């Protein structure tokens, strides 16, 4: 069951203490598919209940999948040096909170672009893009020499949410495993609305018998 918590929005998560931390004895049972937001937020915070801001512009969070910020996404030379062949912009748009790139921005570079116009708010339904994003990443990784850079503005909420959904949909990971794997590689903090939507995806895939961590 997805429960409501009071995690602050993405841009205010830095050094904010989680008011709903639970003791180690109350942490989730990894064999259970009943997921609460508190359990997921416990995975995102350190032992003192603090969130951390990303320490680098980007991290390789899964083989050939990079999660990062807009600074690197708009630096074509840097992308080419990294061997990036595909870009998934999880924050396509022209507002301050979005990244205004497009296929035209990468024209002539050989980089294949896909944009998703997500906003980093609790009420935005990013789940309608889960399948689309997962399909884009999976098709890119079908070729051994391809690498995907998934980004939003900060590489903190929107882009890791889409990569977690990919791991659940295409790699059959449960939400705990997918989120913990990404968090081990990069400091992330999907907003609670996004976490609720990942909870619902977890419940659906579990009911369909598509998750391997049973």
Automatic annotation (TrEMBL):
Q: Which residues are catalytic?
A: 152
Q: Where is the Tyrosine specific protein phosphatases domain?
A: 128-186
**Cross-referenced SUPFAM superfamilies:** (Phosphotyrosine protein) phosphatases II
Keyword entries, A-Z: Hydrolase, Protein phosphatase
Tell me where in this chain the Tyrosine-protein phosphatase domain is found.
57-207
Query: Which family, according to the similarity comment?
Result: Belongs to the protein-tyrosine phosphatase family. Non-receptor class dual specificity subfamily.
User: What function does this protein fulfil?
Assistant: Dual specificity phosphatase able to dephosphorylate phosphotyrosine, phosphoserine and phosphothreonine residues, with a preference for phosphotyrosine as a substrate.
Q: Name one GO cellular component term.
A: cytoplasm
According to UniProt, the reaction catalysed is: O-phospho-L-tyrosyl-[protein] + H2O = L-tyrosyl-[protein] + phosphate; O-phospho-L-threonyl-[protein] + H2O = L-threonyl-[protein] + phosphate; O-phospho-L-seryl-[protein] + H2O = L-seryl-[protein] + phosphate
Q: Write down the EC number.
A: 3.1.3.16, 3.1.3.48
Q: What is this protein called?
A: Dual specificity protein phosphatase
| Pfam families in alphabetical order | DSPc
| Entry's Gene Ontology molecular function annotations | MAP kinase phosphatase activity; protein serine/threonine phosphatase activity; protein tyrosine phosphatase activity; protein tyrosine/serine/threonine phosphatase activity
Which BP terms does GO give this entry?
A: negative regulation of MAPK cascade
Q: Which residues form a coiled coil?
A: none
Gene3D superfamilies listed in its UniProt record: Protein tyrosine phosphatase superfamily (3.90.190.10)
List, alphabetically, the InterPro entries matched.
Atypical_DUSP_subfamA (IPR020405), Dual-sp_phosphatase_cat-dom (IPR000340), Prot-tyrosine_phosphatase-like (IPR029021), Tyr_Pase_AS (IPR016130), Tyr_Pase_dom (IPR000387), TYR_PHOSPHATASE_DUAL_dom (IPR020422)
Lineage in the entry?
Eukaryota, Metazoa, Chordata, Craniata, Vertebrata
